[in-house]
Amino acid sequence: MDILGRPLTVWLSQLMLGLVNGSFYAMLSLGLAVIFGLLNVINFSHGALYMMGAFVAWMGMTYFGLSYWAMLLLAPLTVGLFGVIVEKTMLRWLYKLDHLYGLLLTFGITLLLEGVFRSFYGVSGQPFQTPDALAGATDLGFMVMPHYRAWVVVASLTVCLATWYVIEKTKLGAYLRAGTENPKLVEAFGVNVPRMVTLTYGFGVALAGFAGVLAAPIIQVQPLMGQNLIIVVFAVVVIGGMGSIMGAILTGLGLGVIEGLTKVLYPEFSSTVVFLVMIVVLLLRPAGLFGKEK
Prior knowledge:
Low-confidence stretches: none
Distance between the termini: 48 Å
Largest sheet: 2 strands, antiparallel
Structural class: mainly alpha
Number of helices: 11
Strand content: under 5%
Helix content: 55-70%
Strand order of the largest sheet: 1-2
Order of helices and strands: EEHHHHEEHHHHHHH
């Protein structure tokens, strides 16, 4: 069956590709939304931390013989620990200053991380083996479903929805939100707000590390892998609404699908369709689709 002159299998394949890309957009924009929404920091280093997660997983598997499943846990923890160190030693001194200072600091961290990994590994990509349990594909009749890409979508959605539930529906999430608005009141209840802020930043960047590990078998691991992606992810966050958790998830998935389907209709337009959507949304709703109007 043809739709607009293209076979149905082509549309479904691009839909799957769009869901995979949208999963990465959702997870990365979720981390940005958590950090901005709870800490009011624009974390420009998110793309570099995504790259760091992929490299940490690659090094663990290459140098230490660890499994993909072990690195799926250890790499985000390593990136999160790095984020904790950054927050405790540098970022926490900038919370009361203009957003520009945090942006410049995290941009500097991006240049530092990319420079370090480029000096050791160059700009050529490092191959990353797909885990045996997720190798191959299943023929569904109307399309071929790669097992690993299906896993990426399921894992990303699970983590995203679990994060949303914790922040929006649990007592811990209520403490997090209250701690950013009135820290002295929350401290009166015996909550260590500075530690909570540090762990929140660490968790936000750990999400970027987790996305990096998921992406590693799909794209080659190299120091600049987060550069182009982070620009799109910032656009996703703006469209969804700065600081909106569910907005980041839904917008990331939706824009990934739109981008994938655009590659069928008009491939030359696929790299800019996200930014066109951002322009339209900002003209009609400056706070974003799920953002709160001030």
